[in-house]
């Protein structure tokens, strides 16, 4: 990938993952090239890379657009997450290479956001929880595998589904999630692979139940 294409890819990927470009929004090559001061060729290359990442799809007679996820897509993604992340958590515990103090710091950081929620800063708190949560999970992925496992998990998790997941959580659901983070950290610290695996699978499946709760607004979450 050329430097220009890599720059366009990073910018577009960030826009998609942060929700700047919402689900279903079209990606017009000419417009994007003008926005980023590039020719259409590197933009086209960036879009192909985003398509391979699962963030963009190309629709006949319409062109490229940011993916929208159905309930069936959500079921499949979280099923894969429960398998892969459970495996990563088990390995992280058994390999003993996780940065446990950092995991505990991330847990505390997420827990502090409950105060911001109580103070009415919901968007800021949810965005910070999302950022810290992604770092927490990535740290476990990196501790639980070499190159292949973290790359696979990145493709499964870093899709539009994840960006606004925490906006759907009630306060009680957030507290439950944070308790699971703490337990998962302690299982990894103890080197107990079975415990870490079980907690991670429960954690991921609880998140799936929240997203698939009746009345959930998919376009808002995506």
Automatic annotation (TrEMBL):
Species the sequence originates in: Saccharopolyspora griseoalba
One family name in Pfam for this protein: FCD
CDD domains on file: WHTH_GntR
Keyword annotations of the record: DNA-binding, Transcription, Transcription regulation
Domain HTH gntR-type stretches: 2-69
Domain of life: Bacteria
Gene3D superfamilies associated with the record: GntR ligand-binding domain-like (1.20.120.530), Winged helix-like DNA-binding domain superfamily/Winged helix DNA-binding domain (1.10.10.10)
Protein's recorded name: GntR family transcriptional regulator
């Amino acid at each position: 990938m050329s430097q220009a294409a890599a720059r366009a890819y990073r910018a577009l990927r960030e826009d998609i993952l942060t929700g700047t470009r919402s689900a279903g929004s079209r990606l017009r090559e000419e417009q994007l090239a003008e926005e980023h001061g590039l020719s259409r060729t590197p933009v086209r290359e960036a879009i192909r890379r985003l398509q391979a990442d699962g963030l963009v799809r190309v629709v006949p007679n319409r062109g490229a657009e940011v993916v929208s996820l159905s309930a069936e897509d959500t079921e499949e993604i979280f099923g894969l997450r429960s398998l892969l992340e459970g495996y990563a958590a088990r390995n992280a515990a058994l390999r003993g290479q996780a940065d446990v103090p950092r995991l505990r710091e991330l847990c505390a950081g997420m827990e502090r956001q409950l105060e911001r929620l109580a103070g009415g800063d919901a968007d800021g708190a949810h965005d910070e929880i999302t950022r810290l949560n992604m770092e927490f999970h990535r740290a476990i992925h990196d501790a639980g595998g070499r190159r292949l496992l973290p790359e696979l998990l990145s493709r499964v998790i870093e899709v539009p589904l994840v960006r606004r997941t925490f906006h759907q959580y009630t306060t009680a659901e957030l507290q439950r999630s944070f308790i699971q983070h703490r337990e998962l950290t302690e299982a990894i610290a103890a080197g107990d692979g079975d415990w870490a695996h079980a907690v991670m699978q429960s954690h991921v499946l609880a998140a799936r139940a929240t997203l698939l709760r009746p009345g959930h607004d998919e376009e808002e979450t995506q």
